[in-house]
Amino acid sequence: MAHFYQSSHDEVLKELKTSEQGLTPEEVSKRQEQYGLNALLEEKEATIFQIFIDQFKDLLVFILIAAAIISMLSDNVESALVILAVITLNAILGTVQTVKAKKSLQSLKALSTPHAKVIRQGEKQEIPSTKLTVGDIVLLEAGDVVSADARLLEVYSLQVNESALTGEAVSVDKGTDPIVTENCALGDQTNMVFSSGLVTYGRGVAVVTNIGMETEIGKIAKLMNETEARKTPLQRNLDAFSRRLSFVIIGVCIIVFILNMIQGASTIDAMMFAVALAVAAIPEALASIVTIVLAIGTQKMAKENAIIKNLNSVESLGSVSVVCSDKTGTLTQNKMVAQQLYISDELINWDQLHPNQDPDRLLMLACGLCNDSTTTTKQRIGDPTELALVDLLEKYQIDEMDLRDKYDRLSELPFDSQRKLMSTLQMIDGQSTMLIKGAPDELLARCHQVFTVDGIRPLSSTDQQVYQEINQQFAKQGLRVLGFAYKKVDKDELEMNDEHDLVLLGLISLMDPPRIESAEAVADCKQAGIKPIMITGDHKVTAKSIAAQIGIYEDGDFVLDGNELDQLSDEQLKQKLPHISVYARVAPAHKIRIVKAWQDLGHIVAMTGDGVNDAPALKSADIGIAMGITGTEVSKDAASMILTDDNFATIVKAVMTGRNVYANIKNTITYLLSGNFSGILCVLFASIFMLPVPFYSVHLLFINLVTDSLPAIAIGMEKSTRNLLQEKPRDARESILDTMTMKRIATEGVLIAIVTMIAYFIGLQESHGLAATLAFATLCLSRLFHGFNCRSKEFIFNIGLFSNMYSIGAFVIGFILLNSILLLPQLNSLFMVTDITLNQLGIIYLLGFIPTLIIQMNRWMKTNKE
Known about the structure:
Blueprint: H1 9-15, H2 25-35, H3 48-54, H4 59-73, H5 77-98, H6 104-110, E1 115-120, E2 123-128, E3 137-141, E4 149-161, H7 163-166, E5 172-173, E6 192-193, E7 198-210, H8 216-226, H9 233-262, H10 267-281, H11 286-303, E8 306-308, H12 312-317, E9 320-326, H13 327-331, E10 337-343, E11 346-349, H14 358-369, E12 374-375, E13 380-381, H15 384-394, H16 400-406, E14 409-413, E15 421-428, E16 431-438, H17 440-444, E17 447-452, E18 455-458, H18 461-476, E19 480-488, E20 502-511, H19 518-527, E21 531-535, H20 540-550, E22 558-561, H21 562-566, H22 570-576, E23 580-584, H23 588-600, E24 604-609, H24 615-620, E25 623-627, H25 633-638, E26 641-643, H26 649-688, H27 697-707, H28 709-716, H29 739-764, H30 768-789, H31 796-799, H32 805-823, H33 825-828, H34 838-865
Parallel strand pairs: 9-21, 9-24, 17-20, 21-23, 22-23, 24-25, 25-26
Antiparallel strand pairs: 1-2, 1-3, 3-7, 4-5, 4-6, 4-7, 8-26, 10-11, 10-20, 12-13, 14-15, 15-16, 16-19, 17-18, 19-20
């Protein structure tokens, strides 16, 4: 059959095999067995133990476990314990970061009302909403939250706010007539109500068409279940790096083991060489350091009103090239506000009314008296349009409750979707006066006179034309327009035929205005090379108008609605994509399609939103950004970042922080890998030339985990030294280890390896133990100094040696720890070092400083040449 919204009252009841008397208990039982409960299914989550075990599913971890086993077999129990401790610590850190509350479906469930009013077997009953089933007759009243999708059978001035589902701030007038439009958008299905909708006015009777996972909210839940969170560019980069490094390490370790066996070494000695090489090559602290650097970025963002739920999202922000933003509540204020008025033959702004002039005074009375909304310091109750009229009065220090106390409502004709009018009767200036507001087209047709400052005159055809033109002018700007009129009557009770021969007062245009900071934030996005896009459930005219005001829409751009989007193939969409700046009248599935289309073109996409309808797209985007104040719990749970001030401009600050975090992480990785590369070269050199192993595993672990980690964390604290907003987004497909970075790692690693092996040969003249001690200490100290090199690519005094006091502190602590190991007998045996003389200590200091001296002198010379 056709969609329920296309079918008549009788056809829907027949299709659902029910009647206006409702279902019988037997029918309810059968249908609950057939359709299940009116509830959303929950996704099964991994346990904390499963997540912990998953942290060990990495080749690098397997290599370290193998190294620990070999160390234990060769009686190096301390080394084995240290390696296992490192692995466990990293697994715990990974688990803590992975385990986060997955409350999306629970929040979706919370949108259902606990009870629903139904008619069953001719009797009105109140039942738990989970017990609703297809074919139930439900009763709806103002204040109710709709519990299931349903086709309306009767309406009495029914208005429903569906902003959580469609993104539109204005309540929808509901009716019962079939809609002939094919593929009608949710927001236009005015004879349907949907689960999570809030009844703001009137009442209605409806028959349930879908429950649970088959509702529109349920479909969103399915999309969220099917949508997998994407890995960030950094995660993908590190995963790829980890795989490549694992295979290289395994290959080199096998070669070293074979070489040592061929050269006559014992199996245990050959294994120890392989273990030393593996420990030297694997940056054990990398995962922990990256986590800490990201956490530092997270704390900084929190101070700037951006709460990051997923640490890896911090880095992703740095490469965002597209921001898909919801309109309502994100770029706009999520409330209707009066804009311009047409009164007394004059177009004026909202703040140009003259309360002492009769037409203006009567119009203001109509705003407050022909109105059912109320505002207090604690809450705002009513339709957004009516609330906007109350707000307009408050700007003139007029309280709507004072007006209503002064002018009692004697009678009323409530608004309904057929008449599109609302009328009230009050005693004003000793005369029974009917005040009317409604749709301009409907109101103008009933007016024969117009009230101006010059008095009342007949409404001529020219006047009619002018008012129609003003109405169209407002509509083209995406404004909602209300007309106002009055009529003096000699009665105390209003009737429908009283709404004729009216005196026109004027027109008021209203809109959900852009946030003050939106235009500047959009301009900043474009300056940073980021394309802002508006995606909304609102109409094209309104969406285009708002987008043009804040700079998202420019001449030559396209505006598409959901139906037009459906008509495009994926290939056609990708071709048009760069030129489409506004999408209107879209459904949740459309939003995901738009996000994925940009992702297929290689872009990193951020999606902002605050409604339930935004949740699937927030989850599928690289960065989902929810509004903290106006956002629903569903959108917050699905997002990876929450703006606590609901300020679009905060995204720009977050992008800058993300770019800086990425630069710091890259420098951190360069620091760790160049140091590890130097250790690999030393072990390889000793292996090839049949020399004793230059380091014990415990030496390398101490360097990787203690003296390396402190400078690495300090590098992550580096502040931005350039205007990151001027840069274009980096290519997410670009490896974090590009050619220049690899050259830098190799060059700096060779320098450190050379001085380390010089120290090794000096010690080898006396004993293997001293050689290993000098090599360890020199490698350790040179890497501590190297922390200053990796803060930036520039000469250290250009960025300021003391501009990052964390790096100074990291060096001092590392220096003290190294000297404690070398000079305190209690620590000598634990770290397998021998006693050294002051001369030998001086050699360590000198050799350890030489690589940094060479690197910094080279940078100084390059700076002077430029």
